[in-house]
Specification:
Layout (H helix, E strand, L loop, with lengths): L1 H31 L17 H7 L6 H10 L19 H12 L2
The chain binds heme C.
Length: 105
């Protein structure tokens, strides 16, 4: 019994740690990919706030669409300013991870 509680405690601590480091990884990738030149998490800047993007696509199957748009660039979803192509700034895996992070905000 005692051991079981201890086990649960360790498990919870480990889960908390993983969730937090996933958040930190996402932010680090956004920094590495220069996304933060134009985006912030909370507020519209040159580009839309990451939280607004998360809210706009909540529950929709748009992961591939967003990855493509970030890589190739594009315009028209959020106003008149275009997003330039970001291909090459991150690997494909990193683009996927940063999109998952944005959508988790
Ligand atoms: C030079 C400025 C700039 C940079 C750098 C930039 N973005 Fe953007 N981003 C924009 C603008 C402007 C839009 C709005 C485009 C539109 O209205 O369709 C946008 C839109 C987006 C969207 C929403 C796309 C949609 O169709 O709704 C996502 C997701 C996104 N950016 C992620 C990123 C990520 C991740 C990076 C870094 C790899 C990045 N952006 C780098 C300016 C930028």
């Amino acid at each position: 019994m005692r051991n079981q509680s201890l086990f649960k405690l360790i498990l919870l601590a480990a889960l908390g740690f993983t969730a937090q480091s996933a958040l930190a990884d996402g932010a680090a990738l956004a920094e590495k990919g220069s996304c933060l030149m134009c985006h912030t998490i909370e507020k519209r800047n040159v580009g839309p706030a990451f939280k607004d993007i998360a809210a706009a696509y909540k529950g929709q199957d748009v992961e591939e669409k967003l990855i493509n748009k970030i890589k190739k660039g594009g315009r028209g979803s959020w106003g008149i300013l275009p997003m330039p192509a970001n291909e090459g700034k991150l690997t494909d895996d990193e683009f996927r991870e940063v999109v998952r992070w944005i959508r988790s905000l």
